[in-house]
Amino acid sequence: MGTEENNSVERDTQSASLTEFKFLNFTDINQISDPKARKTIRSHAQYRVQQDLRSKRRNQKTKNVILDTSSLFQSQGQAEPSSCQISQIGEYQQSDLMPMPHPSDLGAGRSNPFMKYPIDMNLRAHELIDHLNGDTCAMFKTMRQAGFFNLVYSDEAAFRQVLCTSSSHMTSLRNEAPSSEALSLSTNAIVSLNRKLTDPVLRVSDGVIVTVLAFGCHAIMFKDFHGALTHLNGLTEIIRQNGGLASLGGNPVARILLFWLDVNVAFVTDRPPRFPPPTDILPPIPAIDTTTSPAEVVFLACVTPGAVDTFSALYMINRLMVFKAASQYLFWSEGIFAGLHIMPVLSKLLSLDPPSTKSFASHPNCITQEACRIGAMLYLAAVRRKFGVPLPGKIYIPKLKSAIQAWDVSGAPGSDSVLLWVLLIGCMQALRHEEYPWFVETITALISKLGFVSWDAVMALATKVLWVQGVFEIECEELHQDVSIAWWNLYHRVFP
Predict the structure, then answer these.
(1) Using one digit for the tens of pLDDT, what is the confidence trace for 410-457?
(2) How far apart are CA 383 and CA 393, in angstroms?
(3) Residues 52, 46 contacting (CB under 8 angstroms)
(4) Helix (H, G, I), strand (E, B) or coil at 87
(5) Which site among 115, 138, 139, 224 is 20 to 30 Å from 172 CA-CA?
(6) Dihedral, CA of residue 276, residue 314, residue 216 and residue 195, to nearest 10
């Protein structure tokens, strides 16, 4: 404002100077040649020329460079200047220039501000979408890579529930209590879903299935396993009324998410999955290379029908993980690998019927298969945790203990290495569990029986069964310390 007033005063002064008259009095014609008089006349005659020159020099000196420094202020934690401020270089300011807009003024980030969403979007909603598209959550990244969010963006109820999940995850990262925002979003999603469920046509639509899947994924993420089971029961009934899984034939993404939810619920509740793997969508598991000898667990633990295929698939996936973990630096950040390759194997393991007492009598190696089955599921649970999906497997610890206690392989060759592997997996998954001392005592006795004198020798034998570097390093260190203490208490010798 002050600059405009100064310019106005300057223009008025210039105008007045141009209309001002100066009178020179001469008493003699020779006075015209007087230097002082000549200077006065020349100065008055050249006034306009001098003004033009000064104006050109001033314009050259006041050229402006507009800089968008808002990102610098944000990165340094300083207050960001208002949008009406302009960064300039020069000793003069020019106020009639428009400011340069910053991309964040659109409220976009990683959220497309021009996309059509099913609800009215504000800045906070765009922020929640931006969080979904970030890398802070492995589950979000996997769902995004699978294409689930593209389905969500076309349904109001599913969209609100996904925003609720994003808000809840942001709150959990700050270690804060659940927010009213998440509760409001979930409540509105339920209201929208109930509206559709009262419609005889919409109640079995893909939008309802996608919404219930969103609720189920939210429950799994925040370990509400009872809620996840409830949502899976609802999905089962909706799909039944809609004609079965064939009704999802045109929606492969929904089939994939349904399969993942089903297997996760089956794992945390220790029951077989309800739906078969979508083998027509999932990438095929490569066949076993006949030039390579599979792990002993493939042969030792194959008694009941389906076990050969299950443990062969486990071996092939493990070999693929060993290769990728050694060759790809960011392999463990690709959660989609776990969803497309590990989940089908886990589904097969969960689908194997546990042996009955009658089968024990007819085939004692059935108990070996059961111990290997539980050990393999706990092994895959640890691998999935490395991918960012930490589902608890404590429900299997007592069952694994019972299977090991009843172990009877009838002198099968190579059984000691498989038993050592199963005990090793049990020990590392039983950390902080009440059965952990029993596992440490049992594996220490087996180590002594096999004649090992160092921890490296133990790991060399156990890792020949199934192992991927980088999954159990922390647990192995803690277990080594506990075994060393137990070894000293028993034999009064150091176990390096």
Answers:
(1) 444 457 888 899 999 999 999 989 999 999 999 999 999 999 989 999
(2) 12
(3) no
(4) strand
(5) 115
(6) -30
